[in-house]
# Entry
Amino acid sequence: MTTTQQPPYPPPGPPRRPGSGPGPGPGPGGEHGPGSGGGHDGHGDGRGGHGGHGGHGQGHGHSHSHGPATPVSKHLRKVIAAILIPFSAAVVVGLVVLWPGGAPPHQRTGVGFDRQTQQATVTQVTPVSCQVGGTGGGAPAGDPSGTGAGPATQAQKGPCKKATVRVDTGKDQGRTFTELVQPDQTRQLHQGDKVVVAYEPKAPKDLQYAVTDLDRKFPMALLAGIFAVAVVVVGRLRGVMALVALAVSFLVLTLFILPAVLQGSNPLLVAVVGSSAIMLIALYMCHGLSARTSVAVLGTLVSLLLIGFLGSQFIGWAALTGNTDDSTGLIHGLYPSIDMSGLLLAGVIIGSLGVLDDVTVTQTSAVWELHEANPSMGWRGLYRAGIRIGRDHIASVVNTLVLAYAGAALPLLLLFSIAQSGVGTVATSELVAEEIVRTLVGSIGLVASVPVTTALAALVVSADRPASGTAAPPAARPAVASGGRGRRRKR
# Structure
């Protein structure tokens, strides 16, 4: 068979082995055609990695390139870098300027989570009459385990119990106290239970300690271990990098975002800088430093800006204060300088980031794979095909986001149902309106991320098509996937 050689390919040489001849067909490196050597002259030595691109193959019969995406041209890399490098530099500057150096100290109130706590163990549980209280006097004031039921009601449900509890940590390690456990309490204590006890130094000596919760460290650590093993087994190296990125995200949240907000910095600015840092670290760490990941970063950034703008507008128009429950009330009482409405907007941005990453990465990967399957497809065709995939993604993601918020607010919705409040009254109350605004603003950002990211990805990959006359004809593409031994499709 006669083949036509085009510059810059050298004249065909004598074949070294069957299937290793020259020509525009796929070489032993498993590439799609000549000239795809990633910057080489298209006639490498075929030893895998960067060389086996359609010329004189003389080595292993497969390519060793494992990059996350087909490399783009130098011009496009410069354009992407011109956008992302200044943005990354601004994020670093923001981290340095707003870095809090730790949460500010405050005088403990002894309310809710703002209490001194220690670890303890229940050493003995004995039945007693409910009219004869233990030394500890039962559950402390404000503790949800106390029911306040009368002796007659308690007697109908069985005898009370007196639990002896030993403090295991702190300056009073080894000290014991007793706790009265009523039969109708939700949380019952048993011998050997690990518990968390609250310590109030100003209280009388026999009332300084009280059980507040069970110690759940072991089951929580076990569940986290199972999750990590599952991610690593299925995801392998990608799974490991995803876990590392998750740990980094948690560190940014606990070491930067939360302390900076407590220090009095603008919550919106802190959220933008912190979420941008998480986005850059997580995406590049999990998906590699490539043009495909950079397009996903750009799509995520545009969507976050839209979410921030819409959130700020509608939180202001709806007059949402962000101070609607005991937790936010306690925060505002301890740190009056915190802008609670800004904190609400920061939560909207951070909460939307995780789902945005999923959408933008998926859409970018879909467009890249479509281009790889049909390199002759223009950006309009790529966009139309990618947006069809995105529509399915939009439907599932929006439903997931709404159900996630509804599940978290299920006890609140039950309270409104018990009160037989109208739908309009419930939806416009501040407590529920916050969740509605959070859900709808985040969903709008997710919906917008699909066409934005798809268009960016289509423009990038279509602008990077090889020049006319150097690409392999579309009819020759199927032979790449079916021919050759041990070949890998370049990603």
User: Anything to note?
Assistant: The first strand starts at residue 116 and ends at 128.
